[in-house]
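Subject: Predicted fold for Microcompartment protein CcmK/EutM, 564 residues

User T.R. writes:
Posting the sequence so we have a shared reference for the thread.
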Amino acid sequence: MSACNHEVLISDLPGPDEPSDGKVRIEIFNRADSHNLPTTRAADEWSVGMQPWVLVFRGNDNNATFVEAVQAFEMIGTGKRYVLLTEQTDGASYQILILANSKQKYYYGSQVYNFVDFPAGLAVGDKLSVVCNNLKTDLFTPSDGKYMPYDNGETIPMSYLLQGLTNIDNTTKIANSDDTPLRMTRVVGHVLIFNEAGNFKFKGITSVGNVPRQGQLHNLSTNIMSSVTNLTEYRKDASYSSNLIDAAGENTNGKPVYFYETNSRENDTYMIIQGEYEGKDYYYKMSMINMYDQFNPKNLLRNYAYIFQIKQVSGAGYETIADAKLSGASNVNLKTELLVDDSDTHEIVANDSYYLGVSNSVFIAYTSSAVEYNIFDFITNCTINFSNSKTISGNISSALFRLTSPSDGIIPIVESTNPRKTTAKASISNGLADQARVTLNLGNLEKVVEIKQRSAVPSGGEVLGYIPSGESYSGRTINYYCLSASLDDATSTKNWIKLRPSSMVSRNDTTNITVDDGKIFVEVEPNSSGTARRGVVNLTTISSSSSTGSFTQRIKIDIAQLGN
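User M.O. replies:
I've generated the structure tokens; pasting them so everyone works from the same file.
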């Protein structure tokens, strides 16, 4: 999910007829893009409101201090919207937090306020991290006709944090450094269910249990706000006389379940679905797990679209909802594959008809032998069967690097599932260094993915540095200005790969990290076994070696460590 089709661009300069009162007038406008338009939704997932709030913070990190909050306005008769910010010319760094689609109420800490009184509760000088931790949506309380958040055609609150500004003046642009639009992030995600089991007739979702009642208006980190004491259930009525969402054509496409971010293991989030098996109706309790990873519930994050595909039904469920709710959500008789429509996590290029995106525009392999890798995923919603311009190719094909999939060098277009997601694979050997790249051409769109290789990490361990150009470190480094990093599979790799800040201080969470100085270090601990091992780190950087602008680049790092 992304709000990229409603752009927030701020670039207007004050005109000579404007009052000189220490304010800077900045125009805000939305432009609807035609790509990746959704099917009919219960909520309005795509609109960015006319009067977003703009919060200004002085400083370049999470300790930046709150300066002011100003609501944008529409100038009557012009169709233009503006925000008047206090001019800041002290040479300091600034960050701007944009909050769109505000509702009637909000929480700051445990206190509820009306949005007409915003920013009540906030104090000048409050830290950015404190504001983001405390600024939350209104509590959702189910009622007749209101069964889950944002299910009656409402717009969804969205946010964006623009970093790297110097001063607030008539040169300020609230846009990416390359003038491309900001991509707003929704406070909720959604879930769809598709049935692909031939021996099962999927009838709908009866209820959703243990879901959070509220979420942060902006999540500054990768951590999920604890909600274990603030959960609710989505249902039509107390007797479950009808489904929360009825299936149509064996799926709930167009009728998603909306949810605030949830730690599925901590909250025990689940869904009760109804279906017919061997001629009889049953209820099944589905936890947020994948059939390939039964013991690790999937956390559900904001701005993501999750698709549960029912692949196999091997037994009866429960005859009553009460029994289904009491059961363990082991998904033993109901095998589901969990897909993530993570379009928003892709680097996307688009025209007015379709888009092309890659999960990462750099792939780095630490290896001392020939290995076939999943180097990146690419997605498109294109349905046009171009005869000569839907290709994916490597710049070299040798023992050092060879693109192995798609083997025909053709980008698959949409036939049924939209968007269509494909994995690109390649064989990479020691000695490649920085020689390779993969180019994707689809119509008039092009994306290039850089391929890099370094030797495997020795069994004794190593600390790898990803630091800005010009910075020094005694170990092996690659120059990037880093924003954040996470382990791809924290369950299997967290015991031997640790993500560290430049201070190298001890941290409770070494599987995710966000930094403000551009430096991230990957500590690979000694391997005492005789077996080599591999782990994947996902790195988010900005496209230059300075912190000006916010154009992000995603990097996938596959680290092999030799055995002892």
